[in-house]
Design a protein that fits this description.
The protein is α+β, with helices and mostly antiparallel strands. The chain is about 50% helix and about 20% strand. The longest helix has about 50 residues. About 20% of the residues are buried.
Length: about 450
């Protein structure tokens, strides 16, 4: 026997993928960027200072060697010009008056910066200055001044900040997508969704939440449209019948007593049916707005089931009504709503159970609550219809249509809301030709 169980309070899934927060990723991003800037700057500064120190030491050794050759009277003849050319130097000796006395090597380009060393010489009692210039051009690193280095450091920080801003903009892309999507959404088009990002952070969760909200809005909008359409269809039928019999009564009712009685009976019957339909529509409308009051109190569920069974026996003489009730089964709930739910299930059994069939109501204790059940020997429900029997205005196969049994398709929807509101669940077991059994599980205390 096919069965369907509808739990109305579901637990949220505990397992979620690990995610890194935006604050954490932002901190890591900028920490790495500025650490890189600091490391590059310090490393480049250390390398530059080491290179400059090495060049100055080399130039100082060269100038000391030349000064010794020039000041020693017993020094052997030395080719200063060849030495200067071989070491890419320019050596210039100036007298006391500052005029060049001698020069060796090629003159450096005056438009470019070069390292140089200056030494005082005592040439046989005469004072002179020796200027040794390294003809190798200074590179960017060697020629950089402290002010230039500061500019370079600021430029590195700005580039790091720009790259960080680019990465942040990429991480914040779902926010821009949500803005564009929200602007493009209208009542006529709720199908737009946000592409979720691959990273697991608050923005992905926000995008998924926004998409979920749109799904719920679209579903609610479609349900509202379907609800209005179905309600209009359900109200149109009795209004058409009332209008037709009213016209018949106006034409022939005054002279024909049978026509008058038939017309009045049908008008009253359809008006009563329409009144029940409107009451159910108003109930569901209040339920959707969370405005349907629930009066919690403790009562005996067994007594309530006996009352429903007694009322059913009184108005239905074509079926065998049985009851099986355990004593002292108490619930804390709204007795009027619970009774309305059980009565709606019983009414369905009465409608879809052939004459001389059996309908049984039962009440027994269950784990942390009570089980209220209604079983019948009726025509049953097909497997394809079973998952949809609690949908509003749902119409099953031809054997269960409104024309045959007078059902509006709202009774079980109300049952669903009542059970859901009390934190319970419904289990339906049915098969065509084998009857239906509906079990309602309610907790003994409200959640």
């Amino acid at each position: 026997m096919k069965n369907i169980e509808l739990p109305f309070r579901r637990r949220r899934g505990a397992g979620r993928p690990a995610r890194f927060s935006i604050a954490f990723k932002t901190s890591v991003l900028y920490t790495v960027l500025f650490s890189l800037v600091f490391a590059v700057s310090v490393g480049w500064m250390a390398w530059t200072l080491a290179a400059r120190t090495e060049r100055f030491q080399k130039l100082d050794r060269m100038s000391a060697f030349l000064a010794e050759r020039l000041t020693r009277p017993d020094a052997a003849p030395f080719d200063f010009d060849s030495f200067a050319r071989a070491n890419n130097l320019y050596v210039e000796i100036r007298g006391r008056a500052g005029k060049p006395a001698a020069s060796y090597g090629l003159r450096p380009d005056a438009a470019k910066r070069h390292n140089e060393a200056v030494r005082r010489l005592d040439l046989r009692g005469a004072q002179a200055l020796m200027r040794v210039v390294d003809r190798e051009n200074l590179g960017f690193a060697d020629s950089l001044t402290p002010a230039g280095f500061l500019v370079f450091l600021v430029l590195m920080v700005v580039l790091a900040a720009c790259f960080g801003a680019f990465r942040m903009r990429k991480m914040m892309r779902p926010v821009y997508d949500m803005t564009r999507t929200a602007r493009s959404i209208s009542a006529s088009d709720l199908s737009r969704r946000i592409d979720t990002v691959r990273s697991h952070d608050e923005l992905k969760e926000l995008a998924e939440t926004f998409n979920g909200m749109l799904d719920r809005l679209q579903k609610a909008y479609e349900q509202q449209n379907r609800f209005v359409s179905d309600a209009s269809h359900e109200l149109r039928t009795p209004l058409s019948v009332i209008s037709g019999y009213a016209n018949l009564l106006r034409r022939w009712g005054g002279e024909d007593r049978d026509v008058r009685n038939e017309s009045i009976g049908k008008i009253v019957e359809e008006a009563d049916g329409m009144q029940r339909l409107v009451e159910r529509l108003l109930f569901l409308a209040r339920a959707d707005k969370q405005a349907q009051p629930v009066h919690w109190q403790q009562f005996c569920a067994g007594d309530m089931v006996r009352e429903v069974a007694a009322e059913t026996k009184m108005i239905d003489g074509s079926h065998t009504i049985r009851e099986s009730v355990e004593p002292d089964v108490f619930l804390t709930a709204d007795p009027a709503l619970v009774k309305q739910a059980v009565r709606a299930v019983v009414e369905n059994s009465v409608k879809y159970t052939p004459a001389a069939g059996t309908i049984e109501l039962s009440c027994r204790r269950a784990a942390c609550g009570a089980e209220l059940a209604v079983s019948d020997t009726g025509i049953g429900i097909s497997e394809k219809d079973l998952p949809h029997i609690f949908d509003r205005f749902y119409k099953a196969d031809a054997s269960r249509t409104r024309e045959r049994k007078g059902s509006s398709g709202l009774g079980l929807s109300i049952v669903k809301w009542i059970v859901e509101r009390h934190g319970g669940k419904i289990q339906v077991e049915s098969r065509p030709g084998c009857g239906t059994k509906t079990k309602i599980f309610l907790p003994d205390r409200p959640e």
